[in-house]
Amino acid sequence: MELNEGIRNRQKFIGILKEVFRKSIHLCSAFVPSLLSVWYMPVMALLFAALVLYSASEFLRMTGHPVPVVSSITAAAARKRDENKFVLGPVTLVSGIIASSILWQPLASSIGIYALAFGDGLASLSGKLFGKAHIPLTGGKTAEGSLTCFTAIFISCFAACVSSGIENSSSVALIIASVGMIIELLPLKDFDNILIPVLLGGISQALLF
């Protein structure tokens, strides 16, 4: 029994480390709006290049030809459900950022990307570390994770609106955070990386412009 408990604890610890590593990439995407405001075309070109190169490296890894460094990082960060499969998360993450940046005005796009970076990123970490109240029909999501998602999106949206001189910042942030929390609850797997920045960016644009 003690041996089994030790194995379970070790597996849980490894899972948390992977989640921290994976979500640190989400958090780093918060830098993208600032970079786009200065070097729009070069940054977009880099995002497209990263998308193509990562996809190519995953196809090579799946066919038994791993790419040094890239394939190792991918394997280290992969969830259990992604083992021996194409790891789709980075593709949807970059695709969501690109789509939001193309479709919406800078402020609206930034709000969508911040929601992805902070809301989705911190929700998963909070759920893994502190989550106890599981929500039915959500694929294991927790109330703690959802509240973290709402709070992170509200704060990031409110800050973005205030810094841009938006008068009804709190109302906009409340709507965006509420919708973002609902999306995060859906069992979308990696496709929330696209839906969150695109949908929340679109709603932000409708509310602000």
UniProtKB/TrEMBL annotation:
<dbReference type="GO" id="GO:0016779">
    <property type="term" value="F:nucleotidyltransferase activity"/>
</dbReference>
<feature type="transmembrane region" description="Helical">
    <location>
        <begin position="39"/>
        <end position="56"/>
    </location>
</feature>
<feature type="transmembrane region" description="Helical">
    <location>
        <begin position="86"/>
        <end position="105"/>
    </location>
</feature>
<keyword id="KW-1133">Transmembrane helix</keyword>
<keyword id="KW-0812">Transmembrane</keyword>
<keyword id="KW-0548">Nucleotidyltransferase</keyword>
<keyword id="KW-0472">Membrane</keyword>
<keyword id="KW-0808">Transferase</keyword>
<dbReference type="GO" id="GO:0004143">
    <property type="term" value="F:ATP-dependent diacylglycerol kinase activity"/>
</dbReference>
<protein>
    <submittedName>
        <fullName>Phosphatidate cytidylyltransferase</fullName>
    </submittedName>
</protein>
<dbReference type="InterPro" id="IPR037997">
    <property type="entry name" value="Dgk1-like"/>
</dbReference>
